[in-house]
Design goal:
CATH topology of the largest domain: TIM Barrel
Helix content: 25-40%
Strand order of the largest sheet: 6-13-12-9-8-7
Structural class: alpha/beta
CATH superfamily of the largest domain: Aldolase class I
Oligomer: single chain
Radius of gyration: 23 Å
Shape: elongated
Number of domains: 2
């Protein structure tokens, strides 16, 4: 498993993975008893085999731990030898792993294990494609809550494997004030002020303060959100040109406030406070690490890896930490909110948005508009014993 970014380290991953796998195996076995695999009973009880996990297409791997848990839950004696790690690219016809063990156990676990690996690798691959398009900008790629039911945490991890970063995990770790909240609260200012009141009630512990994000649909709403003290403002269905106007308006409004510091400096400091990452807001310098580029032959390597960056950086460049959001935030000083673009942004348009000066782009497509990676598990006839 890759080193996790800060928002994901607060969870018990062994338990998450076990629960995911148990639920999936139970769908196949009507419980967790491997003897319920009636077709498996056709095989000799003690027959051992060797199998190869092969991919028919290019992609980025994610989900090794779920794959392994599916086998070990049925039979702890099954041995898996990997030729690749999560976050690394693979090409068509590549052997990803070799599995050795009891034939019944392997065939009982096979489909559940591959379902996880195919789906999570698809998420990582889709993320890597999007991230590659904006990797030379200062804009970060975020996921959303538009995940497959029951696989929220698994897909959040897969996004990390693909070089992307996590938005809020659920409804509990950040205020995200959207159109219907604004309507019910009788205005943006009222909604944001109420969120500030709730944060104040949490007391002096800065770790209790949640980020306040608000969705806006116009520049006039953006102005209200900035003046009310939102931490992050989501620009819903803005065009690239409107995003540029939003960036300019943010600077203009901030500079008019008393005690205002240099906006470029404070924006950088605000990102560091919220992410713990010091290289926010700057294109990554070239280094010996590699990144992924989709070609006709599959994933090839080039400089400046999204995946290597995510693997090497525990504090992800575009992750917004709910826990650390206010650790050094002085609520009495003017603050410079971060800007996030969202809504119908695809591979054709993402770069034009990233070049506007916004801080983040959030995309539901990287977790919901995915096609499972084509994998095959083949038993080696010569390896039967």
């Amino acid at each position: 498993m890759l080193e996790l970014p800060q928002p994901l380290t607060n969870y018990c991953w062994d338990q998450i993975i076990q629960l995911d796998v148990d639920a999936a195996l139970s769908e196949d076995l009507n419980g967790l008893n491997p003897d319920n695999d009636v077709t498996g009973q056709l095989l000799p009880a003690n027959q051992r085999v060797s199998a190869s996990l092969i991919t028919r297409e290019a992609g980025v791997l994610a989900g090794q731990n779920w794959f392994q848990q599916a086998f070990s839950t049925i039979d702890k004696a099954i041995d898996i030898q990997w030729n690749i790690n999560d976050g690394e690219s693979f090409k068509p016809k590549q052997t990803l792993a070799t599995i050795n063990g009891n034939a019944r156990s392997i065939l009982t676990s096979e489909r559940t294990a591959m379902n996880f690996l195919q789906t999570l690798s698809a998420t990582a691959t889709q993320t890597a494609k999007m991230y590659h398009l904006i990797k030379d900008t200062s804009c970060g790629l975020l996921d959303t809550r538009k995940t497959l039911p029951g696989l929220r945490m698994a897909q959040k991890y897969a996004v990390h494997c693909g070089g992307g970063f996590n938005h809020r995990i659920g409804l509990y770790d950040r205020f995200l004030i959207k159109e219907n909240h604004i309507m019910a609260a009788d205005g943006i200012e009222n909604a944001i002020n109420k969120a500030h009141e709730i944060n104040q009630i949490q007391g002096e512990n800065s770790l209790s303060r949640l980020i306040i994000e608000v969705e806006v649909e116009s520049l006039s709403e953006l102005e209200k959100a900035i003046n009310a003290g939102a931490d992050i403002i989501m620009l819903d269905n803005f065009t690239p040109e409107q995003c540029r106007e939003a960036v300019a308006l943010r600077k203009q409004l901030y500079c008019s406030l008393p005690q205002a510091e240099d906006p470029s400096t404070l924006l950088r400091m605000t990102k560091i406070e919220m992410t713990g990452q010091s290289d926010i807001g700057q294109p990554q310098a070239e280094d010996p690490s590699t990144s992924l580029r989709m070609t006709g032959d599959g994933m090839t390597k080039e400089k400046n890896s999204a995946v290597m960056l995510s693997a090497a950086s525990a504090e992800s460049p575009a992750v917004i930490l709910s826990a650390a959001s206010a650790e050094s935030k002085d609520l009495t000083r003017p603050t410079l909110p971060l800007l996030e673009a969202s809504g119908n942004i695809d591979q054709q348009t993402i770069l034009s948005y990233a070049q506007t000066g916004i801080d983040f782009i959030s995309s539901g497509a990287i977790t919901k508009n995915i096609t499972a990676i084509d994998l095959s598990l083949r038993i080696d006839a010569s390896g039967k014993r």
